[in-house]
Amino acid sequence: MNATVYLEDGTIFNGKGFGKRGTSVGELVFNTSMTGYQEIVTDPSYAGQIINMTYPLIGNYGVNKTENESKKIYAKGLIVKSICESPSNFMNEKTLSSMLEEMGIVGVQGLDTRSITKKIRNSGTMKCVITTENLTISELEQYIKNYDSSKNYVQEVSTEKIYNIKGKGHKVVLMDFGAKANIIENLKNRGCDITVVPYNTSLKKIMEINPDGIMLSNGPGDPKDVPEVVETVKQLIKYKTTFGICLGHQIIALALGGNTYKMKFGHRGGNHGVYDIEKDKAYITSQNHGYAVDRDSIKNKDIIITHTNLNDDTVEGMKHKFLPVFSVQFHPEGAPGPIDSAYLFDKFISNMDNSIEEQAI
């Protein structure tokens, strides 16, 4: 089936459809990962976005039920150079194409994804329509005009109710802004008793749980779209050991009086170099974000920058001078990507240990 990719600047790419037949509109972004496509499409942080994969062959090892980072695909679509319909892997259960079809996601293949990437790098992220229907230019333009870019996707991807994952270690409240499954796995592997709460859970309710620490998860969109969360975190960090990842990192910055901004095309991939200032060591990290912390805005806010991006020097990590609060912009849990920076989960455990010891004294 023929398919069309239409960008808001009027650019058209023609290819072939896979997955669901139909039309979808969203923000067009690119991801540079060579593998890990299943984890990428099931990452809730991609809610509302159409993902353009730069690596030319996608789907060659299939998909399976164990690699999903959430229960469904929140992305609006997938664009690839070539989709593999005959995957080879001992864990393979179905093709990526059939997974997308089952979950109602439109895919387009057979076009130059690196050309699309160059356009995004030059012009920035933009609205995009992908369709397998025979639509006119005016109909495609109407989809762009009707697209609501202000939608609160955190509300869509967050858990609707509080639930607990038993553990014998530290009590951790995970504020779910679209938490990836591997964040929970890393906490479970360290014995944590995890209570996952909706993104807008009140300060009172969280304090009633009486956790040893707060984990602020990744999630989609602009941190300024959830001002009520920023206000809650502003109070939480006064009392609780806190670790923020990605969107959680940005929310901490806002809660401490800093600012965030939308990047031209963001960081999305499994090969981003980050410098850990405290360790004087570079790490390769997994990233997925379109917003960043404004470096100048956190000066004189009792914040120490701990990590920087080796490509563009953006803020990749920070900690508070006096409070047991720290955060990173990248994904220490990987999935997909390297797990060299998983030591940050151990740091979170250590911070909770120290806080409990201080309280005992």
Keywords summarizing the entry:
25% helix; Glucose Oxidase, domain 1; alpha/beta; 7-stranded mixed barrel; 2 domains; 10 helices; 361 residues; 10-stranded mixed β-sheet; Rossmann fold
Structural commentary:
A ten-stranded mixed β-sheet has the order 10-12-11-13-14-19-18-17-15-16, with helices on both faces. The chain has a seven-stranded mixed beta barrel with strand order 1-2-8-6-4-3-9. A two-stranded parallel ribbon has the order 5-7. The longest helix has 18 residues, at 343-360. It is 25% helix and 32% strand. The protein has two domains: 2-149, Glucose Oxidase, domain 1, CATH 3.50.30; 154-360, 3-Layer(aba) Sandwich (Rossmann fold), CATH 3.40.50. With 361 residues, the chain is α/β, with parallel strands linked by helices. It is built from ten helices and 19 strands. It is globular and about 70 Å long. It has helices at residues 37-41, 96-102, 113-123, 137-146, 153-157, 181-189, 203-209, 227-236, 247-255, 343-360, and strands at residues 2-7, 12-19, 23-31, 49-53, 57-58, 77-79, 82-83, 106-109, 126-131, 163-165, 171-176, 193-198, 213-216, 241-245, 260-276, 281-293, 303-309, 315-320, 325-328. The protein starts with a strand and ends with a helix. α8 crosses α9 (247-255). Pathway: Amino-acid biosynthesis; L-arginine biosynthesis; carbamoyl phosphate from bicarbonate: step 1/1; Pyrimidine metabolism; UMP biosynthesis via de novo pathway; (S)-dihydroorotate from bicarbonate: step 1/3. L-glutamine binds at residues 45, 219, 221, 247, 250, 288, 290-291. Residues 1-170 are annotated as: CPSase. The active site is at 246 (nucleophile), 331, 333. This is Carbamoyl phosphate synthase small chain.
